[in-house]
TrEMBL record:
Belongs to the PBP/GOBP family. GO terms for molecular function: odorant binding. This is Odorant-binding protein. Its main location: secreted. GO terms for cellular component: extracellular region. The keyword Nucleotide-binding does not apply. The gene is OBP73a.
Length: 123
């Protein structure tokens, strides 16, 4: 994954700032993430990530209220952004490869938001 780079961003202009990764690497990493989400009950029966499942996954074992709330906000914002990006209809199965790409983008987005929260704790 030598070709990964982050799009520069203006925090006021958007909710999600995707990492630029070659499609093949994104698909591979995303499929692994989708499998991890599935094993941790973070997706629904059709394969779409869920708010409750992702919040539980990312906040498991953490007892700090601030981190839990940051996780809840991050997951909510990211699921909304990804739903818009992929024009998701949660009543239908994902298209071929879509669940992998989506899992990568969900992880990427939530990681960015939680990193921001954690960095702000040390300012």
């Amino acid at each position: 994954m030598n070709h990964i780079r982050r799009i520069s961003y203006n925090p006021r202009s958007a909710l999600y700032y995707p990492t630029l990764v070659p499609a093949e690497e994104k698909r591979l990493a995303g499929c692994l993430l989708h499998c991890v989400y599935a094993k941790n009950n973070a997706i629904d029966k059709l394969g779409w990530p869920t708010l409750d499942g992702l919040v539980n996954f990312y906040s498991e074992g953490v007892n700090e209220h601030g981190f839990f709330m940051a996780t809840l906000r991050s997951v909510n914002l990211c699921l909304h952004a990804i739903t818009v990006k992929y024009n998701i209809d949660r009543r239908k199965l994902p298209k071929r490869g879509e669940s992998c790409d989506l899992a990568f983008d969900v992880f990427d987005c939530i990681s960015d938001h939680l990193t921001g929260y954690c960095l702000n704790q040390y300012e």
